[in-house]
Write a structure and sequence with these properties.
Blueprint (H helix, E strand, L loop, with lengths): L2 E3 L4 E5 L9 E4 L2 E5 L3 E2 L1 E6 L5 E4 L6 H15 L5 E11 L5 E11 L1 H5 L4 H6 L10 H23 L5
Antiparallel strand pairs: 1-6, 2-6, 2-8, 3-4, 5-9, 6-7, 8-9
Length: about 160
Amino acid sequence: MTIMILSENTYIRIGEIPKDKHSTIYYNGLPVGKEDGLAVYDCARDKDLHDWRIVLSKPVNGATVLILADLLEAVYAGEAKVYIIVGKRIGTSTDGTPLIDPLAIIEDVTDQFRELPDLAQMRANEVEPRSGKTYMDLAVAKVDKKEDEHATEEEQRHPEGD
């Protein structure tokens, strides 16, 4: 799979573009101000599959990851759309993502992001290199071991015949 990084004026936007073209700043879920522009994500496109990818700018902070997770959850729930947009970069948002002056929406790619596989399930089926077992098998074995330890403790506290 080859990924081609797009020009610096192409971005991914999750959610509608506000009329004033300025993203809202939230603190503890409450609006506390406005950004100097529209908050977006850098993006790349797989030139073979034509799939879009969100590219996080470095350094990535906790707020960036949490906000992205919330936004993607809204996309999965059908509450938000994902757009490829062009615009002029004018700064960095309070959570570390690019701020732009948006020029145009060039593509609605919401369906591509709704079709993402269940990443937790994918991870569960990956093979852990040292043991050769899947992560799911290792997790089940860990739970089984804890249950066995608990049963042994109970047997020691309450031997048969007491």
